[in-house]
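seq:
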Amino acid sequence: MNSSNLFIDVKYGPRNPSVSVSPSGEIVEGSSVTLTCSSDANPPVYNYTWYKKNVTSPKASGQSYNITNIRSEDSGEYYCVAENIYGLINSSSQFIDVKYGPRNPSVSVSPSGEIVEGSSVTLTCSSDANPPVYNYTWYKKNVTSPKASGQSYSITNIRSEDSGEYYCVAENGIGSNNSTDLMITVAGTQSSQKIPLVIYASVGITVAVLVLMVLCLSGFIWFRKKTPKSVSDTRINADSGQGISNPTYENFSSVGGTSVINDQQDDLEYINVNFDLAKTQDVSLNATVQPTNQDEEVQYAAVKFNPPSAATKPMTGVAEEESPVLYSTVNTSRTNTT
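struct:
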């Protein structure tokens, strides 16, 4: 009795679909990537559809999905859906991590606002990168050697010479990139100090001049007080019955009957003596006044004072006081003789 083999072909839907990536390893921005979906099924899967997680619309269809010139925004989880006549099933997710170098590094300064000389300033560099930046280097424009390293750069007791443009260089395993320049201006630089210096100099010069003027004026007043008055010339000018009145005779001292200039000004006496040349009446004031000529301008070169008589002399044993100084104003009037 002959027996025959019986083949049983069991049909089933897709089983354990999976996604592979090529090339394997690190995916760098700008490169190309191929995703491939595989699944066991009977009959074989006739349709593969590609999705990115959290995105409803499919990305592509087919067993392979090619991404050319991949970008950082292409990073994410991808999966495929395998389908045959008996069913469909989702594969496990495959994470695509696109690496890229530092992007758009920028510099910020703290505190913000005006930077005063002597204060402290902190510069901070920030940059988007995958993997993250592992090294920051600080430079001042037109200076080749670096100023510092690290994400932050602190300048303590900042000076005017620290003014300038600063930038950072951000670097990771993919590449490096320079930030834009940040201008640092320290208040109190030469341009901002010129006006105050001129003002201070002007004020100083003005004060010095005023002090000098006050000193000169004080010295002049002191000199005038200490300088003795000179003997004035005694002059009387007569004109047709009118005389120039009030010529002044100063600092005459009667010592032993002789007119002597007295430097001291104590015990002053002022007297007005009026002469009328038309009268013959004697004028007696214990003084003899001798005019040079009645017909001409009368000038008195000296005024002599008679010493005191014996009856009026001071008593014996009493010190004789110095004769007082006499200031006299002599007014004369002259009449024409016929």
